[in-house]
Design a protein that fits this description.
With about 475 residues, the protein is of the alpha/beta class. It is built from 15 helices and 22 strands. A seven-stranded mixed beta sheet has the order 14-17-18-13-12-19-20, with helices on both faces. A six-stranded mixed beta sheet has the order 9-8-7-10-11-21, with helices on both faces. Helix 5 links the parallel strand 7 and strand 8. Helix 2 crosses helix 6. It binds NADP nicotinamide-adenine-dinucleotide phosphate.
Amino acid sequence: MKMLIAGKWVDKKEKIDVKNPYDGSIIDTVPDGDAKDVDRAIASAEEGYRINRNLPVHERIRILLGAARIVEEKAEDFARTIATEGSKTIREARKEVARAVHTMTISAEEARRIAGETIPFDSMPGSENRVGYYFRFPIGIIAAITPFNDPLNLVAHKLGPAIAAGNSVVLKPATVTPLSAIKLGEALMEAGLPANVLNIVTGYGVKIGDPLVSDPRIRMISFTGGVEAGERIVKMAGLKKIGMELGSNTPVIVCEDCDLDKAVELSVSGAFWAVGQNCIGVQRIYIEQGIYKRFETLFVARTRQMKVGPQLEEDTDMGPMITEGEAERIERWVEDAVKKGAKVLTGGKRKGSAYDPTVLADVPAGCTLDKEEVFAPTVNLYPVKDLDEAIAKANDVKFGLHAGIFTQDINKAFKAIRELDVGGVIVNDSSDYRIDMMPFGGVKRSGLGREGIKFALQEMTEPRVVCFNL
Ligand code: NAP
């Protein structure tokens, strides 16, 4: 596939292979973009900003709904692309496509509601003869940088609100999964998005990241990815708006009074969805000691039922990790934890890029598996004496994106809601619950700002005050 610059699909001699992570087969190529391509894309986006901010809102709505319809009509093709370039199974990929359609549709709906309000200027003595208001205006060119794990919907989360608000975009998708993003770009162009409003540059973040994020013509960086790249981007960005959706090592708390079967089922799903490569995927489960053994037994039994295999087979429950290197990394992390005293209850085996769903107990505090984001199909079980200990341990990390708690006791639920240091608390489900219109984002090293269309629209616009001196 090609890059999109100034309304043209551009190819290059230098290419990057896009591979199926299961067997390493090459499924397509994309151009290996460089700083010159970035410069051209930004120049195009300057023109795109002038065009889109002057498009009537009903026209932006028409385009976004049109793109949503195209994705819906080609849903199976999109799902196969996600499940071939990435880790997700075809069943997981279909759900992502449905969510991306929803994300684009909500973006169109919210475009109607980008409004301001009147200002009571006469509240200040001396301003009796003034009237006015503020409205929200688009901020300019947005650099959108996206990760591999939701290669379609996380792109929609940036393009939808950016276009709805009247901005232009230079998108840099993850190098391992650029195809879904390019297809969404095609859908937008087919729906009538004017040339220049969206530009897509494919290429390695280490090569094109700095010229993109440091360019003063870019007014906002909307980044979803890991902390390391996020920190580099913040250092390089200079004076511009920044949205950071980063990682976590997400906790779930299981209280003695919970519905145990539900807690097991939903936590297994939350731990191994998308091979655990999920920013709100369950990584640390704190279980009150009275039910620890029963929970452990049921959790391990349910995990063992998961079938690992090629993404496109309908009965595969879990696909491969995104690269063999990533599978080797988690293998090393598990070996390190085991050396320090952890016990593998099930899993712990790697075959190429596939790593079995893995459950560990006795993971020592402070080892990598405990304190870093695993972004892999491993989960740690910890017994705790009570909710206070669970909350203290859940909070004792540098991240804070989502947390889950299973309890029937409303007082325990509210205590967790008050005391957990996170961007979202999910009660009676795993941390892995999200819909696309809710505010989504983290505290501490999990990020800055919020996505979720209405909230992204706030970040992607600024208020402009108008005052009449009568
Ligand atoms: P990543 O390695 O940080 O890459 C994310 C994106 O940043 C990719 O497009 C990457 O390009 C680009 N990039 C890398 N270095 C860059 C630089 N110096 N300047 C500019 N761009 C750069 O993350 P990933 O492995 O794709 O995704 C996993 C991470 O994303 C996890 O930490 C996960 O928790 C996080 N995540 C967060 C959310 C959320 O909403 N909070 C959602 C999903 C994922 P290349 O592909 O070319 O390296």
